[in-house]
Amino acid sequence: MDYTLPIWLRETGVIIYWICQVALLYPLWVAWRRRDYWTLPVQILFWVLVALEVNCFFLDLFNLLDNSAEFRARFPPYGISTWPFVHVQINLWGLGYIAMFYYALQSPKIRQVLRIWVPVLLIISLLDSFYLHPFVDFKADQYAQTSQFITVIVLCVLYFEQLLQQLRISQVERDPLFWIATASILYFTSSLVMGSLTNKMLADTHYTNGRNFQALFGLISSSACLLSYVLLTIGFYQLGREQKLVLQ
Known about the structure:
Low-confidence stretches: none
Helix content: over 70%
Structural class: mainly alpha
Mean pLDDT: 81
Shape: globular
Largest sheet: none
Strand content: under 5%
Order of helices and strands: HHHHHHHHH
Number of domains: 1
CATH architecture: Up-down Bundle
CATH topology: Rhopdopsin 7-helix transmembrane proteins
Radius of gyration: 19 Å
Number of helices: 9
Distance between the termini: 58 Å
CATH class: Mainly Alpha
């Protein structure tokens, strides 16, 4: 039997989704105002987030245009594909955050492992985008997303361990990257779990039920994304107020 989500819940999900598309501008504005206190990891993160916002703008723009029958008629038979932007978005999130944590983590061993592991991630990403789940076939790069997002989650945990070794517990909340790592683990974990559940539901259930589960998981994922932006903002506000750490 088909299950239909309440209209108000679906509309709430749409509203939160569109709020997420512009909400990142506020933490970016906060970070830019405090750019005199940027460390190298924060500088990398800022420009990664700018690139994500620009890519997201074009992704949403083409999605909106593709809803127009006149626009779709110019690009038969399926309109214009936005999947290349989706693949770029996933790689910007994953590889961009890995680059940030590369400089945030001080362990030479971890950096050495990352210098070996990142090329492997790039190979996985290329294979996924052009062979395993090609964007020209309207497929998400699931292997690239899973491998990169799990890597970021592990790096977040390693950063928490490093932070606890360097600072007293009472000082942790004064470190911007503590809030950024907390936002990261929230966003990447929720995206990974919700994305996996959505793909499984679409594959294993009736189409209508699958689409409803997709809407529900999308609502949860967008809410987690919005909360991660709040944590990012708190982290950027701490710039210049924290006890400085030497991050090389």
